[in-house]
Amino acid sequence: MIAQRVGTTALRRVTKPNTFFTPHNLAKVALASQFSATQTRPVATQKLTVDDANSLLAKQRLQRPVSPHLDIYDKMQTWYGASAWHRITGCGLSGALYLFGAAYLVAPLTGWHLESASLAAAFGSLPLAVKGGVKFLLAWPFVFHSINGVRHLAYDLGVGFQKRTIVKQGWYIWGASVIGGLYLAFFM
Amino acid sequence: MASIARSSLLRQSAFAAKSLRQQSVLQNAVRTSAFHTTSRRNILPPPPQRVEGTVNDAVPVPPPSPSHGSYHWTFERLMSAGLVPLTIAPFAAGSLNPTLDAVLCAALLIHSHLGFQSVIIDYIPKKRMPNARKFFMWGLNAATAIVGLALYEFETTDVGLTETIKRVWKA
């Protein structure tokens, strides 16, 4: 079948006038010569057992970037975005609560005094700058997490999802939380 | 004459197209290689990998579970929303009565527990590190139980959370 077709095509080429190299076609030839007509497939395949293939795939997957990748995203969103800091401040405050709770429970065994009276007395004897610093370190995450928490509840209702609003509100929350934290730390 | 001019024009444009094409290929290659060779600053090493089933299996879809899905999500939001008045009240009233203070403590504990749970779920994938996930989840449960007991002790023997914070703050 194919051999027959080769014969007929060759015959057709001979009988037909060659219109390929007419000036009319030269432009087309010039255009076409830029594209490679030969197909090359530089891929060699080899048979693998299922276990080998799986271990190879697992090894390849280990080369993938690990999330969260802190370099490749917009710093405004990943580093200063309120969402990441919401988690950081929340973990900080909850971590403080958990540490205090655990310490309070073992206090009778270790002889620590974590009752409110001794805590207040111990805190009161600290220098003013240290007191202010500790208060700010507690007050700023508290204010930040509170304001941003309300914003996230609004997000959950589908409110305030425009990109500009998110960016603008992010800056407002940073400002408000720092001012609020300073107020709670030094004027309360 | 005209045809000659046209053909050379076409040739030029074809050359230009080719060089453009090469350029864009080059640019893409540069871009791609730049992406692949960024300094990898992983916070953590990649967790262990294993292929479950065959190579070509689709990602398994977990069975739907409202108590781990929508109900859990709604419960989280309710706890967060409930904390809003409980947080504002001591600022407005100066302090909280013992009952409300106990409610605040319980809400804070549950809110913290749910928050830590989300952190564990996000950063310790069950598929990759099932044992670590189990360890941290049970560790969190134990910690929450301990802190719950501690807060109960604190609330019943001391002056309460808001009053303590107030006294320390004014000290």
TrEMBL record, chain A:
Q: GO biological process: any one?
A: mitochondrial electron transport, succinate to ubiquinone
Q: Which Pfam families match?
A: Sdh_cyt
GO cellular-component term (any):
membrane
Question: Which Gene3D superfamilies does the record associate with it?
Answer: Fumarate reductase/succinate dehydrogenase, transmembrane subunit
Q: What is its main location?
A: membrane
| Keyword line | Heme, Iron, Membrane, Metal-binding, Transmembrane, Transmembrane helix
A GO MF annotation of the entry reads:
metal ion binding
Q: Where in the cell is it found?
A: Membrane
PANTHER family named among the record's database cross-references:
SUCCINATE DEHYDROGENASE CYTOCHROME B560 SUBUNIT (PTHR10978), SUCCINATE DEHYDROGENASE CYTOCHROME B560 SUBUNIT, MITOCHONDRIAL (PTHR10978:SF5)
Protein name listed in UniProt: Uncharacterized protein
Q: Which organism does this sequence originate in? A: Diplogelasinospora grovesii
Automatic annotation (TrEMBL), chain B:
List membrane-spanning regions. Answer: 135-152
Q: In which compartments does the protein localize?
A: Mitochondrion inner membrane
Entry keyword set? Iron, Membrane, Metal-binding, Mitochondrion, Mitochondrion inner membrane, Transit peptide, Transmembrane, Transmembrane helix, Transport
Hydrolase: is it a keyword of this entry?
no
Q: Which domain of life is it from?
A: Eukaryota
- Sample GO molecular function, one term: ubiquinone binding
A GO cellular component term found in this entry reads: membrane protein complex
Key word Mitochondrion present in the record? yes
Task: Using the UniProt record, give the first listed, main subcellular location.
Answer: mitochondrion
Q: What is this protein called?
A: Succinate dehydrogenase [ubiquinone] cytochrome b small subunit
Q: Which organism encodes this protein?
A: Diplogelasinospora grovesii
